[in-house]
Amino acid sequence: MDINIIFKNNETWVSEKLGLDPDYFKKLAEGQKPEVLYIGCSDSRVTAEEMMGATPGDAFVHRNIANLVSNLDLSAMSVINYAVVYLEVNHIIVCGHYGCGGVKAAMQSKDLGILNPWLRNIRDVYRIHRNELNAIPDEEVRYKRLVELNVQEQCVNVIKTSDVQLAYRKRGLTVHGWVFDVQTGKLIDLKIDYDTILKGIREIYHLD
Ligand code: CO
Predict the structure, then answer these.
(1) Which residue of 19, 151, 166, 208 has the lowest C-beta tally within 10 Å?
(2) Strand, helix or coil for residue 68
């Protein structure tokens, strides 16, 4: 993308929106009431809004390398708190993607400096699921499965927060795990079965 064309593109976009509704930005400026919080990867190919057909105001968005939800990440924790408690979203989506560079890097032994502590979260996912992953002989299939399991574990990390637990009890807030397939453009719902994966461990993280 040519950096010099951005402001020109912006002008075109503004006139398109105003063409549809002269009050478009006036209404947008009034406030937001998004229904979903989307947590995804920073990867430039995985556009949060465009692939969901979402428009401005539809989704509160948080993106980082490999769509991680770390309990020590003040940014992610603040986003979840604000979205759940103040915006009162009813759905939280954690969306990973096949071909994720962050997940790939975590499958290798390379020292990546400042990225090491971040990617260690994915190595921990690998450790938790090592029996299943090590039983997959094909590296590409194993890589895809780690992408899925990483989404699953990040969904569990979302559920570990007190705000989410309270919103679940109060209004049935739901946490969805999805994967975007860059090769086909399709979104896949992993249909995570929390009753099964949290069996015997739910009480460890339960907060009143
Ligand atoms: Co990625």
Answers:
(1) 208
(2) coil
Surface-to-core class of residue 127, CB atoms within 10 Å of its CB (0-12 exposed, 13-18 middle, 19+ buried): exposed
Would the pLDDT of 183 be above 90?
yes
State the DSSP code for 94: E
* Alpha carbons 55 and 125: distance in angstroms, whole number: 33
Q: Is 97 a catalytic residue?
A: yes
- Tokens 């229904």 identify what position? 35
Q: Tell how far the Cα of 182 is from the centroid of ligand 1, in angstroms.
A: 10
- Quick check: 208 pLDDT over 90? no
- The answer to whether 89 touches 35, Cβ cutoff 8 Å, is yes
Number of H-type helices and E-type strands within the chain: 11, 5
Mean pLDDT of the chain: 97
Domains defined for the chain, CATH in brackets = 1-31 (no CATH), 32-205 (3.40.1050.10)
Residue 41 pLDDT grade (very low, low, confident, very high; cuts 50, 70, 90): very high
pTM for the structure as a whole = 0.96
Q: What is the CA radius of gyration of the chain?
A: 19
CB atoms within 10 A of CB 128: 14
Q: Mean per-residue pLDDT for 102-131?
A: 97
